[in-house]
Amino acid sequence: MLRKYSFIIIFGVIIFFNSCKSSTEVDPVSIGFSQCINQDIWRMSMNHEMTVEASLHPRVKLTIFNANRKVKKQIQDIEKMIQDKKDIIIVSPFESDSIVPVIEKAVLKGIPVIVVDRKVNTSNYTAHIGADNIEVGRIAAKHIVSLSKGNANVVEIKGNSSTSPGYERNLGFRQILDKYPGVKVVTMEAKRDELVLDDFLKILNNFPNINYIYAYNDEIAYQTWRVLKKRGLEKSIKIIGVDGLNGPNGGLQLVQEGILEATVLYPTGAAEAIKLALKIANKEIVPKNNKLNTILIDSLNANIISNQFDRITIQQSDIEQQQKVIKNQEKKYVSQNNLLKLLTFLLVIVLGLAIYSIYSRIMISRKKQELEETNKKIKHQRNEIKKFSNELKQSNEARLNFFTGLSHEFKTPLTLILSSVESLESEFKNKGIAINKEINLMYNNSRRLLRLINQLLDYRKTEDQKFTLRASQTNLLDFSKGIVSDFDREAKKKNIEFSLTTNNENLEVYIDRNLMDKVYFNLLSNAFKFTPENGKISISIKEDRENNVVHIHFKDSGIGIPEKEIDQVFNAFYQGSNNYRNSSGIGLHLSKSFIDLHKGSIDVVSKNGAEFIITLPLGKEHLDEKSIVKEAALDYVHQSDYLDSEVIQKKEPQHNEDRYSILYIEDNKDLLDFVSNKFSTEYTFFTSDGTNAVEYALELIPDIIICDLNLPELNGFQICEKLKKDLRTSHIPTIILTSSDDQDSYLQALDSGADVFLTKPFNLKVLAQSIKALLFNREKLRYYYTNNIINIEEGTFGVSEQDFLKKLNELIEKNLDNSAYTVEDLAKNLAISRVQLYRKVKAILGISISDHINNIRLEKSKEFLKKSDLTISEIAYAVGFSTPNYFSTSFKNKFGISPKEYKIK
């Protein structure tokens, strides 16, 4: 609410200040002027007049660029004015041709261009201002004719012919004098608006009777007079100039002093250019050519014109002084206006703060009451939370104690089971491999169950910090060998290269052998669990004398750990995203806790597998004296998980064409072997650990597939879905085994196409009955179809089997009369191999593909025998038999009657 009022106040202040702005303000007009020469009195006068005129118009922002007789510089200046987006460009060109492109470019950009004084050889500009240079030449020539009565010797010092003034003034001068034969003219050219002394002296020497000199401008005329004065000729030769500027060394002063006979007034046009630019800015129509008036100034009117110029100069000076005063007044007004605005703004702020202060006091009083009430509620809630927390803590402690006690209770019956199994193993040692194998299986899994219970108890101890370190001096290599030997059997079973190396066989360390045994077992168990067959696992013990530590490296070539999860490996209950096996997730957490008790560290690196590095300090200085014992106490150290010392070789399945085949996909080898042994006497049993399950199923085409849910590559649902969508295996019944018994898993199993869904632990009798039921249903379908070969009813089979049989029958009927059409041709048309076609037809119909083709041919022949007038031989060939005799024999074997008898019947 407070913020809302603040925004309203600020918004009002902004509106107030905006309303104070003058409504008479107009947009400024940016004018750029390119001056071609900057060291000429006439050009300097032009710049001054333009500056004075611009100052009379506050909206005009004038910028003057001086090219100093350089065409490239003038072009660059105009380019910059175009880039700066000047509103109007005024140009006094140095040459008539060079700057034409850049002037035309400005016009194309929409910028008006005013050409002052000299002309350019293009009409693509906005306006031109300047005196008529031809008329200037004519006025000078007329004056000479008037003075000389048509008889005189004249020297003309003309300007550069590449400029319009130089060319046009010479043109106008000659137009008049060419009419008077008595006037002889000698012409020379000035360079850079200066007299070429050598050329002029030659003329003086060659033409001694010179009466008049006509100079391009007053400055050249003055230079000529000084040369004449040195020779004493200044009285005899009269000089006429052009410009007629007022001021020191200006043409007007030189006439008054008698240095020049006369001068032709040539106005700059600067003020007129600014006025014309403002008209263009105001969107007024202006003429393209604007001529300035000019007159002859001689001794008769020089004083009058000088007085007029002086008055104009005085007026300009007064105007400049008044402008300075106005600017000072404007500055004072602006400063006072800003001060007034600031004071108004401060007044508004003070008023706002006063209102805010009153409002805040009221709100603070209300908030204080609300906070007091809230504080009471919070105190009450805190007490309730504290009470609930204590109750929850007691409840949680009671649950943990219950599970801990229950875990302890598990150990007693497990001990009895283990002892009983050991006794049974001794008693039945020579009774046969099957009994010993099942006893060994019971012992192995009981030991694993005991280890899981011990891990649960160890985790409880670490949470309560009840572990006490009992470190004793131990030969690290001998200790490691004792544990490594427990895993030799597993290494042989998976054909894993398993090694133990050290750089010091006599290395002694202080460790708690019981805890370190658990660390070794956890790391090695994980290594063997996640390393595939034919992999590598190594333990390297490296003494680092320089740092007084030992590094123990556990490296495997397994699936590794995702890089993003490296930091989470030792967290309790962590399971890797690439870990498809169920696990407790506390093994590595316990290992790190035990290493920390030894004042060591454990790190992990994952590259081409996983590598765990244990670092332990050497000596005993890092340990508390109470933690060091002389005699080591061991709990279950070096107790093997196996009763028998030899690996029981797995039997290859016995193939029997009369027995049904089963493919069992399971990654637990013990369970795989157990189920395989139980069913191998009744079925041809094949097994897969899940790594190549789909490919193996496509190769075998078994009668039944039993599949576990959690597998290394694809899970059970994915495998089932792939096989059900494949034409070659879509008919095979599938049983899914899983430890998940929730409704979502059951629905997912149905979606994937599974026929039976069983949860672990499953009963062997239930599994056996499920297999028999699926096979029985298949036999019923086979029986039905063998009696309805041609007609396939909707819903009789699955959609994929029904499509397959329809396509199969269509291909057979299409080639029915072709006795050369073979099973290979049929398989090729169905895009499957001959073996796969045989196995699929055998699985669906219970007969070979050859028998099925013959049955269709015989069924078709029955229709021909009843409904057509064909002979038996013709019918035989029509349904694809090579000879009538073979057809008759096959027909009688199938239906118990000859074709002839059937037709008569």
Structural features:
52% helix, elongated, 905 residues, alpha/beta
Summarize the structure.
The chain contains 28 helices and 24 strands. 28% of the residues are buried.
Radius of gyration: 58 Å
Q: Any low-confidence stretches, pLDDT <50, length ≥5?
A: 20-24, 633-652
Structural class: alpha/beta
Q: Tell me, what's the shape?
A: elongated
Helices, by number, come to 28
Query: How is the largest sheet built, in terms of strand order?
Result: 2-1-3-4-5-11
Distance between the termini: 106 Å
Largest sheet, in brief, is: 6 strands, parallel
Care to count the β-strands?
A: 24
Mean pLDDT: 79
Oligomer: single chain
Fraction of residues in helix: 40-55%
Beta-strand content: 5-15%
Describe this structure in words.
The protein is an alpha/beta fold and 905 residues long. Mean pLDDT is 79; it is low at 20-24 and 633-652. It has 28 helices and 24 strands. It is elongated, with a radius of gyration of 58 Å. Helix 5 (133-148) runs parallel beside helix 6 (164-177), helix 13 packs across helix 15 (513-530) and helix 19 packs parallel to helix 20 (743-752).
